[in-house]
Amino acid sequence: MTDADWMQHALRLAQRAEQQGEVPVGALLVHEERCIAEGWNQPIQTNDPTAHAEVVALRKAGQILQNYRLIDTTLYVTLEPCVMCMGAIAHARVKRLVFGAFDPKRGAVCHALQLSDAPFLNHRVEWSGGVLEPSCAELLTDFFKARRGRP
């Protein structure tokens, strides 16, 4: 499967978050060409501020692989990760990160912070951004417009 195929899957997960009243972000972790874990935003539903899509997927993957080091994996997520998620991604030793929409205000890969290049981290995550960006961004924009009662 291509990055776009996997991102399409992540978009379906983001829609699940939206159906549950959560900010629509979806993530999945791929290892050896198969999806081993999925996640979508769940902080409201679970009363857990760390239940971002990325962290949910990383936790599940750790259980499946029986290791907190997620070597040779690729994480697909519909939005550029925040600082918390980027820290978890680096700590888990995810090899590659692919995200959809850029987040200029809070993104910690290449915008508000550039943690992908931070010299104090002992792991570098390869990354690609903008995969299916229009679809990923539109899902978020429409969600927040509806939340604010704007057309």
Automatic annotation (TrEMBL):
Residues at which Zn(2+) binds: 52, 82, 85
Q: InterPro entries from the entry?
A: APOBEC/CMP_deaminase_Zn-bd, CMP_dCMP_dom, Cytidine_deaminase-like, tRNA_aden_deaminase
Q: Which residues form the active site?
A: 54
Does the record carry tRNA-binding as a key word?
no
Task: Give the domain of life.
Answer: Bacteria
Enzyme superclass (EC): hydrolase
Record's Gene3D superfamilies? Cytidine Deaminase, domain 2
Q: Which UniProt keywords apply?
A: Hydrolase, Metal-binding, tRNA processing, Zinc
* Documented EC number(s): 3.5.4.33
Its UniProt entry gives the catalysed reaction(s) as: adenosine(34) in tRNA + H2O + H(+) = inosine(34) in tRNA + NH4(+)
The Swiss-Prot or TrEMBL record annotates one GO molecular function as: tRNA-specific adenosine-34 deaminase activity
**According to its UniProt record, which protein family does this protein belong to?**
Belongs to the cytidine and deoxycytidylate deaminase family. ADAT2 subfamily.
How does it associate, per the subunit comment? Homodimer.
Supply the name of the protein.
tRNA-specific adenosine deaminase
Q: Which gene encodes it?
A: tadA
